[in-house]
Every structure is written in C-alpha cells, then in structure tokens.
C-alpha cells in the first residue's frame, strides 16, 4: 500500500474550560473538553472525533461496496454509538440501506452481506479493533 498522510492542526485557547479549533483539508471544527470532565463542552471532544472517524470509514466503505454491486439504492444512512464501560470501548454501527421496491431477493441478500463486508474492510475500524475496541454492526435493509 502506498504511504498516505493526513495533516491536522489544532489551536487551543484557555485552560481546561477553554476550547480550540481543529483543522484539516476538509475539516474545520471547534474542539473542547467535555463538561463531565470539567471542560466547557463547547466543541467536539476526542471520543466524538474517534467515533466519527470510524463511522465515516464504515459508510464510505459500504458505499463503495454497494456501488460495485450495482444495487438499486434509494438511500443509505448510519447511526453509530460508542460506550465505555469497565475500560471496554464499544462502537456499534447501525447502517440502514433502503433499496427500491423492484429489488430482487438476491439484491437484498447482497446488501445484507455488504453490511458485514464493510465492517471487515474498513481500515479505521480494523485499526481500532487491533487496539482492543469492540466494533459491532447491526444493520437493516428495507425497500421503498
């Protein structure tokens, strides 16, 4: 694999109750320490960014798989949730794929397999799994 680089810049203002700005090529967002950690909460926090990265990688991978299979996609979305309990970090992806009413049974099954395949192929998710993060996928395919 070719070397890929990502450049990110962060500027922080104030102490723990301050906030900052995080910038990258297509990212420009406020960052802050969450209020439950005695921060201001006036920006996204590291856990949100980590889960956002995993979610973005998953849906981009799923999009590629679905496009390659030429399925009659109406739309696809994802909601992801992260929980930390007893030092166990779990991310649960909930992708929803909507196919046209004309989709065949084989196309529906192919979309269901794509949900699993995207989990296996997502590079960010695989890096997180190597670090001990549990990633679960509970997807749904419907017709419209």
Molecular structure report:
The chain has 144 residues and is α/β, with parallel strands linked by helices. The chain has three helices and seven strands; from the N terminus they run βββαββααββ. Strands 4, 5, 6 and 7 form a four-stranded mixed β-sheet that branches. Helix 1 (46-68) crosses helix 2. The model has no long low-confidence stretch (mean pLDDT 97).
Topology:
Elements: E1 9-13, E2 19-24, E3 27-32, H1 46-68, E4 73-85, E5 88-99, H2 105-121, H3 123-130, E6 134-137, E7 140-143
Helix pairs in contact: 1-2, 1-3
Briefly summarize what is shown.
Helix content is 33%, strand content 35%.
Query: Averaging pLDDT over every residue, what do you get?
Result: 97
* Terminal CA distance: 39 Å
**Shape estimate:** elongated
Question: Roughly how much helix do the residues carry, as a percent range?
Answer: 25-40%
The helix/strand class is: alpha/beta
Low-confidence stretches: none
The oligomeric status of these chains comes to single chain
Largest sheet: 4 strands, mixed
Number of strands: 7
Please write the string of helix (H) and strand (E) elements: EEEHEEHHEE
């Amino acid at each position: 694999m070719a070397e890929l680089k990502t450049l990110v810049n962060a500027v922080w203002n104030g102490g723990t109750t301050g906030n900052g700005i995080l910038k990258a090529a297509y990212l420009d967002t406020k960052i802050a320490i969450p209020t439950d950690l005695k921060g201001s909460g006036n920006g996204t926090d590291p856990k949100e960014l980590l889960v956002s990265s995993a979610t973005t990688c998953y849906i981009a991978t799923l999009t590629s798989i679905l496009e390659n299979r030429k399925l009659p996609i109406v739309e696809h979305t994802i909601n992801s949730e992260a929980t930390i309990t007893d030092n166990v970090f779990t991310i649960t992806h909930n992708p929803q794929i909507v196919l046209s009413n004309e989709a065949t049974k084989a196309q529906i099954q192919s979309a269901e397999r794509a949900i699993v395949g995207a989990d296996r192929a997502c590079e960010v998710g695989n890096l997180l799994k190597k670090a001990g993060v549990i990633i679960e996928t509970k997807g749904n395919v419907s017709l419209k």
